[in-house]
Structures are given as C-alpha cells and as structure tokens.
Design brief:
It is a single chain. The protein has 161 residues and is an all-alpha fold. It has two domains: 112 residues, Orthogonal Bundle (Cytochrome p450-Terp, domain 2), CATH 1.10.230.10; 34 residues, no CATH class. It has six helices and no strands. The protein is globular. It starts with a helix and ends in a 22-residue tail after the last helix.
C-alpha cells in the first residue's frame, strides 16, 4: 500500500493530497480496492497499540540512520490522518490507531530485506502466540480469551547497538 501511495501522492508533505489518497483507499478506488488502510486499527487496542509505539521509535531512529526521514514523515502523517479519515468515512469514533504492523514493512525495507520475506517474517514472529492462543482455546472449550498483561519487572532501557 505504501509503495503505491509513494507513487500516487506526489507531495508527501501535502496533507490534503494524503487525505484524498486515504479516502480513495476506503472508497475502494485505490491500491488493491479492498477498502482498507493497512496497518490501522486493532481488535483490542483502540486508543493505541503499545507495540506500535515501540516500532515507531525504531522506525524513527533507523530512518534517520538510513537517510529516509522524508518517508518516515509520510508514515507519521498517515498515522495521524488515517484515524480522522476513517472516522469521517466510516463513522467510527471509538478510536483507530496505527498497529504494530503499520511500521514493520518500512523497517524491513530499511533493513534491505526482500519484500517476499515480509509475510514469512510476520508469521514467524507470531507462531508462538498463535500456538498459545490455540492451546487456550482448546482448554477453554472455544471461549474467546483476551488476557491482560501486567509487568512485574521495573521498566528498563532497551540496549542500543
């Protein structure tokens, strides 16, 4: 989606042009005509996806290191504008935000990974969680489980290399 957007949106700083593109996505007139803005929204995290905030910080640092700040700026504008456009077009006001995968493709691109590996990497990162979820489903007779997370360790800095 972002590759298409980068071709169609001529001025990545023009918020009106970005809004129009996002609106066309939702109207099934752009990209794959699915009516979706990929990387926006989550079934549980409506206000914000805490994982996305961590990914965004990595994207910020890596974009600076790789000289791709303009592209990072486009991502940040889309992250800010998409919830507004979704709210207007779909009348969804409960809250929509960028999810963890909003930034992952951009990060993979900056790491020079081939696009063909994006989906397998996405899947590998989730196999343990999917497996644990399936085991819980079997144990709990199909009941939907939305576990809470409570950190038991003090917050610490992630080591930078």
């Amino acid at each position: 989606m972002f590759e298409d957007m980068k071709q169609v949106v001529k001025d990545w700083t023009d918020e009106d042009e970005i809004r129009k593109y996002l609106s066309r996505l939702l109207d099934k007139e752009a990209f794959d005509k699915a009516g979706l803005i990929y990387g926006m929204g989550h079934a549980v995290y409506s206000i914000s996806d805490p994982r996305a905030k961590i990914m965004e910080s990595f994207a910020a640092g890596l974009s600076s290191e790789k000289g791709r700040e303009d592209e990072y700026g486009l991502y940040m504008r889309v992250a800010r504008l998409a919830p507004e456009v979704i709210g207007e077009k779909r009348r969804i006001y409960k809250g929509v935000s960028a999810n963890v995968d909003f930034y992952s493709g951009f990060i993979y691109s900056m790491l020079d990974l081939p696009m063909e590996l994006y989906t397998p990497i996405f899947a590998c990162a989730r196999i343990a969680g999917w497996s644990a979820h399936r085991i819980e489903e079997l144990i709990n007779a199909g009941k939907i489980i939305r576990p809470a997370y409570k950190a038991v360790q003090p917050l610490r800095e992630f080591p930078k290399r």
